[in-house]
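Quick one: structure tokens for this chain, please?
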Amino acid sequence: MLNKFELVIGLAFLILVPSFRAQNKLLTIDDIFDPAKRVNFSGNAANPRWLKDGEHYLVVSKDRNAFPRLLKVNAVTGKSDPFYDAAKMQAAFASLPGVSKEDARRLANQTFYDLNPSETGALINFANDLFYYEFGSDRAIRLTSSPEDELGASFSPDGRMISFIRGNNLYVEDLSMQRRERALTSDRGAEVLTGRLDWA
């Protein structure tokens, strides 16, 4: 004969097992489309981008009352700070000839930047021209001023140069103060530049 304790344990087991099974139920088409069970799929999934220190990642802020900002989040503590000072970046771009205040505002408030290997600078393709911004020094440079598009822009592995395609030819430009642009191909670019470009 069962004592009270065994009876209570047995009843609890009978009650809890079905609830555990319900938690492991797979999502079905009926769950998605049934108005009574409908799953709420609204909202945007976070898409973090890890920084090379392995401790921080970048996400876009969700403050509806301000421009979206890139936030640098500590993965352990959850503490977040702006990844860069947008006001300084905007001022740096506004000081460049041919860049309007509105263009500078757009350049400083993007939600994705192509970062250099050391993650201290960004390469930006805007209005068919290339720009470079250095976070530490708040220095902005207009790299190209051409009516033709610059495509496939990327940093060299050491971050000191960029490459891009213009008019089916491959160019490189030094990011130092001298800023030399050189064409590596001429007239045969359409034959040479097929497929995806990468630094060799």
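The mean pLDDT is 80.
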